[in-house]
Amino acid sequence: MTPGRELVAVYADESCLGNGREGDNPGGVGVLVEYRRPDGRISRHDLWLAEPSTTNNRMALRSVIAAFGELARKGALFDVLFTTDSRYIVDGMTQWVHAWSRRGWSRKGGAIENLPLWFDALRAVNGHAVRWQWVRGHAGHAQNEYANHLATRAAAAQAGSGGLVASGFEAWLAAAREAGARHADPTAFPEHAAFRPHSAPPVANLYVEGMEAT
Which end of the chain has less Cβ packing within 10 Å, N or C? Predict the structure, then answer.
């Protein structure tokens, strides 16, 4: 943990309807943000956004950019437990970006996919202490299933929340269980004393000549 910082739990998921198919495939992002109030209660807020033509990987990066963009509005740096079912994000943030940085933002296999968005994501994360946590998707993890619900709904409706809004998580979970879904109990809010961030991603050499943020 970082002394003096507030701990925030972020659950994010992405959707791309028809990912990999020919043509324009609409996508969405869903984010659930949790923090603990001084009285111990858990406060939850939602965020969602959409793109008309995209990919799952692009929207996974957008989930990072959007979530940390909203945290930036608070005017403070946070300890963040970021949970996603995207290995693209978890492996990318904990391994790939370090290797790409050492190679001058290149990789052995060719051009880096979505490099401008990776740059945007790294800038958004800069200064926060983050633990990147993977969970298996569609396995009944309540907060992940809810983020998926927000993402798929955003993709289908091509709509955004316009920022963080009051969460519908509890009502959604009750309705899902009444309909027969076997979602687990919500994951407990993490203990700050046990928080261990990953190594900070590279930020000193993000700019490549001719490369602009999206």
Answer: C
